[in-house]
Amino acid sequence: MAPFITFEGIDGCGKSTQVQLLYSYLTNQGLKVSLLREPGGTSVGELIRSILLSNETSNLLPISELLLYSAARNQNIHENIVPALNDGVWVLCDRFKDATVAYQGYGLNLDLNLIKFLNDLVSQNRKPDMTILIDIDPNIALARARKRNLKNHNEEGRYEQESLTFFHQVRKGYLEVAKKEPGRIHIINGSQSINKIQNEIIQLIMPLLCTGEINGIP
Ligand code: TMP
């Protein structure tokens, strides 16, 4: 079974850059890799993403939001993640179920048991083998995210309108999840340079690259 690696962190932490860099690194090694994101990654998921992240959906109720993230994840797992892993393809996913715990659980105060129930319902018992959490001070991250959105005329800015307190809560959520699962979740300091972060990630995935099964050797 190929590895399933997810990337997490608050908006503006730099994770999307790092997922892309790891994707290029792995494909340059000749590996088959599927690069996915949540919400999104399927046709239904991308439509759901546009509802969730539009600046015009500020009236979306927290439970509706949670159900939409779960629906997008259900599609992604069934259509992309499980088939890829079964075919020996590495899966890199830009956000996954820890994001729901951090954003909807800690950020919006939704019931963590309900979130766990929905995550379990859609995951088909698949858990990431490794999660890279890029941790950064929300003051730095939000300034970056807002600058990027302005520059790109990005329409996906709903969360960036949230208060700093919201992002401090989300960060706290991520760190608490990481404390509970230190074997899976690896915290990287996101205030370092892009190269330094990339090198740390490559060191982390090295053991996965070195196992015979992953390189196609039985
Ligand atoms: P992205 O900009 O990293 O693609 O993420 C999109 C936004 O979606 C980001 O603000 C975090 C949010 N999000 C949640 O709130 N809950 C979730 O379960 C996921 C996957 C994303």
Keywords:
5 strands, alpha/beta, single chain, 12% strand, binds thymidine-5'-phosphate, 218 residues
Helix/strand class: alpha/beta
The tally of strands reads 5
Mean pLDDT: 92
What is the molecular shape?
Answer: globular
Largest sheet, in brief, is: 5 strands, parallel
Element-by-element helix/strand order: EHEHHEHHEHHEH
Rg, Å, rounded: 17 Å
What assembly state would you assign to the polypeptide chains in this entry? single chain
Architecture overview:
This protein is α/β, with parallel strands linked by helices. The chain has eight helices and five strands, in the order E-H-E-H-H-E-H-H-E-H-H-E-H. Strands 2-3-1-4-5 form a five-stranded parallel β-sheet, with helices on both faces. Helix 3 (62-86) runs parallel beside helix 5 (112-123) and helix 4 runs antiparallel to helix 5. The structure holds thymidine-5'-phosphate. Thymidine-5'-phosphate (TMP) is lined by residues 11, 37-39, 53, 69, 94-95, 99-100, 103-104, 159.
